[in-house]
Amino acid sequence: MPDILTGSRKTATAKIILTSGTGVMKVNNRNPLQYFGRQDLVDLVNLPLVTAGVMGNVDIKAKISGGGISGQAGALCQGIARALVKFNPELRPTLKSAGLLKRDPRKKERCKYGLAKRRKRFQFSKR
Fold first, then answer.
1. Residue 89 has what DSSP assignment?
2. Chain segment 32-53, per-residue pLDDT in tens
3. Structurally, what CATH architecture does the domain formed by 4-97 represent?
4. 28, 77, 92, 124 - which has most CB atoms within 10 Å?
């Protein structure tokens, strides 16, 4: 039984099963372009595979939940990078130097009381 590894970004989480194979990738039982609908997000998902040089050698099955499509693509990218390190520990320095193993900490800022939005203030009137 292959290991299930996770990746996360914003409020999205991705569970990854990586096995050696022919390069088939399924995201929630669909191909990545059909699921994400944008080529730049598919390129982000494929970035760890291209960086490690194993583009057509591994099969990936992913289950993603939470967040929007951009956060889900980031979560999938991190999950694939973690799975590749588990699959082949020699890839760790390459993926780490590319910044693919680090979780992106940026989230939506909370609304503060007394303000119109996160940082926008109400119009000031002197008189």
1. G
2. 999 999 999 999 999 999 999 9
3. 2-Layer Sandwich (3.30)
4. 77
